[in-house]
Amino acid sequence: MTVGGPTFDLVVAANRLPVDRVVDAVGASTWQRSPGGLVTAMEPVMRGKTAAWVGWAGEPGPAPEPFTEDRLHLHPVTLSLVEIQEYYEGFSNDTLWPIYHDAIVRASFPRKWWNTYRTVNQRFAQAIVEVAAPGATVWVHDYQLQLVPAMVRSLRPDVRIGWFNHIPFPPVELFAQLPWRRALVEGLLGADFLGFQRTADAENFLRVCRRLLGMSTEGETVTFTPPGDDPSPRTVRASAIPISVDFKGLDALARSPEVVRRAAEIRVSLGDPEILMLGVDRLDYTKGIRHRLKAYEELLRDKAIISPKVTLVQLALPSREHIEAYRQLREEVDGTIGRINGEYSALGSPAVHYLSHAYPRPEMAAMLLAADVMLVTPLRDGMNLVAKEYVTCRHDLGGALVLSEFAGAWHELHQAFTCNPHDIEGVKATIMHAITTPRDERRRRMKALRRQVAEHDVQRWACLYLESLASAPLEPHRPTLASDRERRDAERANRANLRASDRAAEG
Ligand code: ADQ
Asked: CB 18: neighbour CB atoms within 10 A?
């Protein structure tokens, strides 16, 4: 079903292409690699293969012609202004995003958004089959493209199809609210392999198949008879393959003399605080920024910490500003920080340094290296790469990671200082614990955290994903004794972490 253009053995499809258009002073435009982790993750697996990437180029209106950048074939998909509003801001981010994040805010269900979501998914599927070589591997990413697997399969049964969910997959009770729940599951089941961040996400998906669609599941697989003319049953595997960061690359960057110097400079420019706390988030209601600020404000009020000896830097990159819940969040965060600064700042040293810019990687690495306490307090997060980036940058074994148990990362980073962000007393106690823990104990924890991320980096994630896709519905390899032991250790550490955080909250 190709239309004569070049075809590729590996096709990645994501809402966005991994490039941004940059316009220079004289109006000439070029494409620049976007800094995102997905591009880095895909690099080693795409190298040496003929690969294409299908996605939106970031501007409304007719898509630019396909082009090649760094030997990667980029195939832009058109999105009109209305489609951006209804498929992306609407259905993806105002219907699915809240439902998939514990309904922290109320989801909206306009029917016309669904129609547009379907139309756009069909357009992506069409673009994919145009560039997929016979027998190609197609890797679809994220919640914006959940109908694509079945659409691709119906056009091109010869290709192998995988989907990876970067965000959580909700419990059946929440998923059941979606009027289009059956169509979404049937869309996903067009894949051979479905990857999730946590085991609980894969289990939620399998439970949805069982309870809402009456399908039969066994272990990590679901077997069903697809709708249509072909009555033969299919089996699809759903497993956890947690995403990670480019440990080697980021570690090397954080060790570079420029970044080490810049980290020291940052501390000096903040007035050399005894304790520098840092939060780095997209400005999203899932990230727990309000809860974190409340805990910080109360610690100042209680005089448990004193500004400017203790200082908080909060980077909050504005996002999805056309959506009401995000506008409201921004107003609240702006207001809260204004109030804290009015109450607790000294002239020239604000209690909260609040920054809304996008920073280049070296500057971000320097900030992570400079921070004594990193606050990662989401109410729900698929993974949270910032937590992994922080420990990657701490080659000096300094610093302490405060981590919410509702971040996917918590399931791997057992030596972090755990908190339940809903429990403000608990967050305060955990912050104080992170501050007061003796240096040797903090170093021991950081060393273990770094080992975990180094051994489970993003390159390993991408390879594991593709191996799982290739062998699905069978497992790519039998779990070894060592991985079984790893799992048991992880479960034990999680239980100990939870006990400690509950005790802290109970005072
Ligand atoms: P996000 O919700 O965007 O991703 P996250 O995993 O924290 O969340 O990644 C954010 C990235 O943006 C990090 O690499 C961070 O360094 C960067 N960043 C944040 N603020 C920045 C700033 N001001 N300037 C420059 N860079 C900044 C979704 C899911 C997550 C999941 C990822 C990957 O919601 O749960 O971890 O996908 O699967």
From this structure: 22
Question: What is the tens place of the pLDDT at every residue in 332-389?
Answer: 999 999 999 999 999 999 999 999 999 999 999 999 999 999 999 999 999 999 999 9
- Under DSSP, is residue 500 helix (H, G, I), strand (E, B) or coil? helix
Contact 176, 204 (CB under 8 A): no
Average of pLDDT values for 291-314? 98
Contacts of 296 (CB under 8 A, 6+ apart): 277, 312, 340, 352, 431
Helix, strand or coil for residue 279? Answer: strand
507 pLDDT exceeds 80? no
Cα distance between residue 178 and residue 198, in whole Å: 22
Q: How far, in Å, from the CA of 135 to the mean position of ligand 1?
A: 33
pTM for the structure as a whole: 0.93
Average model confidence (pLDDT) across the chain? 93
Alpha helices in 101-233 (DSSP H): 111-131, 148-155, 172-175, 181-188, 199-213
* Burial of residue 210 (number of CB atoms within 10 Å: 0-12, 13-18, 19+): middle
User: Which residues are near ligand 1 (CB < 6 Å)?
Assistant: 37, 166-167, 243, 280, 282, 315, 317, 358-359, 364, 381-386, 389
Residue carrying structure tokens 């259905």 = 91
